[in-house]
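Look over both lines before class:
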Amino acid sequence: MPAAFATVDDYLASQTPERRTDIEALRSLVRAAEPELIEIVKWNSPSYTLRGVDRLTINAAGKGPVRLILHFGTGRAEDKSAPPIFDGDPDGLLTWHSDLRASLVVPSARDLPHRHDAIIAVIRAWLAQP
């Protein structure tokens, strides 16, 4: 288990340069989508709350791709066998893990400019969910 991080800066300092670049790309997209999000460290990762509710978490653990997890924190029970509650992903950017938890893999630096607007639109639509 990695060390517990007190700040997002501590978290970033622990990452390889390549992963830090991907994490910073996601942070930029998240901030562009909703400036009112509060960035904290939760679940040992950069996470974002909106009006006191956990809504997004960056997952860079392990060797897989860096992902943005879209969720509702622990306050709502999820059903892994139910269909998604969300229909705001017209470009199919999300991978669903339950009815109310999905992930978005950070695109490559080459693809990011082409997906930038679609990713921001998905994040905004997700955050508009009650």
Q: What stands out?
A: Residues 17-33 form the longest helix (17 residues). The beta strands are 38-42, 45-50, 53-59, 67-70, 95-98, 101-105. The chain has a mean pLDDT of 94. The chain has three helices and six strands.
